[in-house]
Amino acid sequence: MYGRGQGMGFGPPVTPPIIKQLLIANAVIFVAQIFLGDSAFTRIFGVTPALVWQGGYLWQPFTYMWLHGGLGHIAMNCFVLWMFGSQLAMAWGTRRFLRFYLLCGVGAGLIIASWPYLAVSTGLADPTNLVIVTVGASGAIYGVLLAYSLTWPDRTIMLIFPPVAFRAIWLIPILFFFSIYVDRGNISHIGHLGGVLVGWIYMQRQGQGGSLFSIRSLKHRWRRHKMRQQLREVRTEDQRRREEQRRNKTMH
Predict the structure, then answer these.
(1) Distance set, CA 211 to CA 100, 201, 208 (Å)
(2) Does domain 2-212 have CATH number 1.20.1540.10?
(3) What are phi and psi of 183, to 5 degrees?
(4) What does the domain layout of the chain look like in residue ranges?
(5) pLDDT tens digits, one per residue of 111-163
(6) Is 6 exposed, middle or buried (0-12, 13-18, 19+ CB in 10 A)?
(7) What global pTM score does this model have?
């Protein structure tokens, strides 16, 4: 749920045609995965670093984003695309939204295919990481979430469970926290981060939301945090003194 105008609403008021088409495409390909043999289909079209850079499977950074690892995986990605992508598509238009969506997805795919080589060469990962297959539209979805949070940073988002409200600008940090510390499933954090990185570069080049993460902005937010902390300390000390005075009066 998120704020719209003066109230709260669940889901977008309208689902643009491009969002419907992306949802249908994901669903059709997911059904094809099931009927054509999930393992073979995934091996050919999912992202496998060794196959991309050593086997010549250069199409994988594009095709992986149309495959999913299960019903829950595709359901969550499609739900988030519908929930947050619809308003972004209405604001941006079909061409710009589709270009951004594909750019984030393909960019994340290239990072997924490239990062393991850097990690293995520096001793941060085992060589078996080069043959791990990654599928899913999460890189593109995280890019959409970032664009939403930068376009409408002050909108209020309300989780149904747990019932917590927060500003849209905190959407990406909260999702990363949940994916790393709460949902420790088979998740490609590099893919998520890749989609966010590519989306952020795009938004920077478009001149949208650039000041939100500038050094000046971060310093300002830090000063505000310190001022609030000092104010809380003053209030706590003032309350402690009043309680001591009250106790002293009671004893006399």
Answers:
(1) 20, 13, 8
(2) yes
(3) -95, 90
(4) 2-212, 214-251
(5) 999 999 999 888 888 888 899 999 999 999 999 999 999 999 989 888 777 77
(6) exposed
(7) 0.79
